[in-house]
Design goal:
The protein is of the alpha+beta class. It is built from 5 helices and 5 strands, in the order αββββααβαα. The protein has a 5-stranded mixed sheet.
Length: 117
Amino acid sequence: MTALRLEDLEARLRPHFKAEAATTMRRVYQIVAQQTPQFFLQVEDGALTLGLGAWTGTGLPRVTFFYPSLDLAFAILEGEADPMAAFMAGDVRSDGHLIMALQLGLLFPPKPRSSTL
């Protein structure tokens, strides 16, 4: 099992979070990876709260994402991997409201890719 500390989670994800995209959002994204601890992203009116383990709160809709590894989860959330390509390859699945799942990409957008013409 991979050790994951809240400080490490904050350091890795907070710089990639786009608060301006979350000004009216209220939801929780639960991140589950095989053989690693899970964590959650709680988004409320532009604010991000990160936590380890399963979210146990109430009153907010939740979408759960399942990844084969924590490395892939971080690569997607940090904008290094293409979430749609990972989904189409069967490497990512989600449980919950589809539109809310897709909106995670607004909060943690992929980095622009250079195109070759």
